[in-house]
Design brief:
2 domains, 5-stranded parallel β-sheet, 4-stranded parallel β-sheet, globular
């Protein structure tokens, strides 16, 4: 079966896969290659501009990169991502594969391999160094996949679901909650401000909870403007998503923000996710600030 060289809007598709060692980058790259992508793993960053010169490749491109790259530095990778994001001839996405420390440690123990940043030291030291170096890249990612509970088979299925280039696959919709204090998610295609809703932060019994807690969700829903807001947002999303599918997009991100990114935006994100899932869309959720808190507490 032939593969179109570009997306329907005339752009070369490029997927960059990164994340800590042991999180599943090789499995993801192999899955993309099996799905029809031209896959290149750990190519030196200095060669990337040359790779993207000239006419579009006959297939979408997938690049794998981590700290083992001989030219790796956090700054260089972030600059590369920014340069690629600004290019108008690319449909560019960054996929970050994350994983809990204990699962990474178990994977290195099972394979009896040394962590690339640990040497003869405890692998946990290398894991900590690598995650610290990659934290800014994680924050910049368009798609975050936690592989802690994923088998290689599950990882392949998730990558195929998100990035298959076969005809007829549905648009994958990602919903993100975020804090305006930390800036808008760069990957957002559509953004809604939830700061007008009543804030659970000012309720002592709710402050330590998150928007995933039913008590917080109930409090937010009691705002007299909530029901109309949810109805109109749901109607807008369900009416526009088919148009983006027809445009040829394979992934669409909707973001909901509030002051701290812990209560209102999280609660609204969860409800809209259910609404879109019931309407038949492929939906995934990411709560950016809650992920930050979890990472700091590990």
């Amino acid at each position: 079966m032939g593969v179109e060289p570009k997306t329907t809007d005339g752009k070369q598709r490029l997927v960059l896969v990164t994340g800590p060692s042991g999180a599943g980058r090789a499995t993801a790259i192999h899955a993309l290659e099996d799905s029809g992508y031209e896959a290149i793993d750990n190519m030196p960053l200095s060669l990337l501009p040359r790779l993207l010169q000239g006419p579009a490749y006959p297939r979408p491109l997938a690049l794998g990169l981590d700290v083992r790259n001989r030219e790796f530095s956090t700054r260089a990778l972030l600059e590369t991502i920014e340069d690629l994001t600004r290019r108008t001839d690319l449909q560019f996405e960054v996929v970050y594969l994350d994983c809990s420390d204990d699962v990474l440690l178990r994977r290195f123990s099972e394979t009896r391999r040394r962590h690339p940043l640990a040497g003869a030291e405890d692998p946990l030291r290398g894991i900590a160094r690598e995650k610290q170096a990659l934290d800014p890249v994680r924050d910049r990612a368009d798609i975050l996949i936690d592989s802690s509970d994923l088998s290689p088979h599950d990882m392949r299925a998730e990558i195929t679901r998100l990035f298959s280039i076969e005809e007829g696959l549905r648009l994958a919709v990602s919903l993100h909650s975020f804090s305006y204090k930390r800036g808008l998610p760069r990957s957002a295609d559509m953004v809604f401000d939830c700061r007008f809703l009543q804030n659970p932060h000012w309720q002592p019994e709710l402050r330590a909870l998150t928007g995933c807690d039913p008590r917080v969700a109930q409090y937010v829903s009691e705002d007299p403007r909530y029901a109309a807001f949810l109805e109109q947002v749901g109607a807008l999303c369900t009416s526009l998503l088919p148009a983006y599918t027809e445009e040829g997009k394979s992934h669409f991100t909707i973001a909901f923000g509030c002051s701290g990114g812990r209560h209102r935006s999280v609660a609204v994100t969860e409800v809209i996710a259910q609404t879109l899932a019931l309407a038949g869309w492929q939906v995934s959720c990411r709560h950016r600030e809650l992920e930050r808190e979890l990472g700091q507490n590990q």
